[in-house]
Specification:
Low-confidence stretches: none
Strand content: over 45%
CATH architecture: 7 Propeller
Protein name: 6-phosphogluconolactonase
Order of helices and strands: EEEEEEEEEEEEEEEEEEEHEEEEEEEEE
CATH topology: Methylamine Dehydrogenase, Chain H
Pfam family, one: Lactonase
Number of domains: 1
Family: Belongs to the cycloisomerase 2 family.
Distance between the termini: 14 Å
GO biological process, one term: glucose metabolic process
Structural class: mainly beta
Number of strands: 28
Helix content: under 10%
Keywords: Carbohydrate metabolism, Glucose metabolism
Shape: globular
Largest sheet: 4 strands, antiparallel
């Protein structure tokens, strides 16, 4: 059985755009990698539910107030390169994260350096269409350099698809918005702000497959924040935290980035950039609380992102600052990782299995 993944990269660090990796799932081998689209700093990518389109932020520098952009591509069915459909302004600086809603009609985007979060309508050909909603964030946090202003770092949809949650690193908040999947509107009247401890720096989040829990990687405090999620009201509460590497560490050395669960909701994985590892936790079925199991080196530096393949047998990590791609086998009974292979690639930043 074979599969493939798309990989974004930082062109400011030597990458050339978006790559494709062809993978032998049975033997855990990366058969080849190749550039499929030249692009400027496509640091985060997302796929359309149909699999026919791919979207990438173009995280240009915020120096001088430069606006970022978002690019749309057709993936094709022949295994060839990506075809650029269009490129549109992100309506903010340093776009850092994006997702397509479940209906495939709208693109939700977080601009890290503001002014906030945006929603774009998608055209029938997959192109990025007009802006239909934007909410500007305000506030700050106590960190003297990282939290002077808001920093929306990610936007994700709750399981029902009618609420969206934004992790704002700059204000130490997870912000809930009502979301209308028909119109793409984010509602300011539906805002609920949940504050985490000062100096937390919430970054990326993921819902448990059951829909009962939300996990958020806190970049500055090197923790995982765990919330109970009420699917009837759309509210989160019951905040508790766990060290991102299983032990309390200096945040400048750990800096968790990505967080994922397996499809069955038994295991939680966290990438830690300073510690250069993937941390594995068992998830308590009743409470959702994570229990630390092990840290596994990614064999490189700064694992900014990772993904599990659709079969749940492989994990592919992107080492941004050296070491390229690292592929691991996942033990089905324990979730433990075993190194499969590594592949050089310049400044990989995001991984998406097709």
């Amino acid at each position: 059985m074979k599969t493939h993944a798309f990989i974004g990269s930082y062109t400011r660090q030597g990458g050339e755009g978006i790559y494709r990796a062809d993978i032998d799932c049975e033997n855990g081998r990366i058969l080849r990698t190749r550039l499929v689209a030249r692009a400027e700093d496509p640091s985060f990518i997302a796929l359309h539910p149909s699999g026919c389109f791919l979207y990438a932020v173009n995280e240009v520098s915020a120096a001088g107030g430069a606006e970022g952009s978002v690019s749309a591509y057709a993936t094709g069915q022949d295994g060839g390169g990506l075809r650029l459909i269009n490129r549109a302004p992100s309506r903010g600086r340093s776009p850092a994260h994006l997702m397509v809603d479940a209906a495939g009609k709208h693109l939700l985007l977080a601009n890290y350096n503001g002014p906030g979060v945006c929603v774009f309508r998608l055209a029938s050909d997959g192109g990025v269409g007009p802006l239909v909603s934007r909410i500007n964030h305000t506030g700050s946090g106590p960190h003297p350099t990282r939290q002077r202003t808001p920093h929306p770092h990610s936007i994700i949809s709750a399981p029902a698809g009618t609420t969206a949650f934004v992790s704002d690193l700059g204000t130490d908040e997870v912000i809930r918005y009502d979301y209308n999947p028909g119109t793409g509107a984010l509602s300011e009247f539906g805002i609920r702000r949940t504050r985490i401890a000062p100096y937390s720096g919430p970054r990326h989040g993921v819902f448990h497959p059951s829909g009962r829990f939300l996990y958020v990687a806190c970049e500055l405090s090197s923790e995982i924040a765990v919330f109970d999620y009420n699917q009837e009201t759309g509210e989160i509460d019951g905040l508790r935290t766990a060290p991102a590497t299983g032990r309390r560490e200096d945040a400048t050395r750990t800096a968790p980035a990505e967080v994922k669960t397996d499809a069955a909701g038994r295991f939680l994985y966290v990438s830690n950039r300073g510690a250069d590892c993937i941390s594995l936790f068992n998830i308590n079925e009743a409470t959702g609380d994570p229990t630390f199991v092990e840290n596994v080196s990614t064999g490189g530096a700064t694992p900014r992102h990772f993904a599990l393949d659709p079969s749940g047998r492989l994990l592919l990590a992107a080492n941004q600052d050296g070491g390229g791609l690292a592929l691991f086998h996942i033990a089905p009974d324990t979730g433990r990782l075993r190194s499969a292979c590594a592949e050089p690639l310049p400044a990989p930043s995001c991984v998406r299995f097709a």
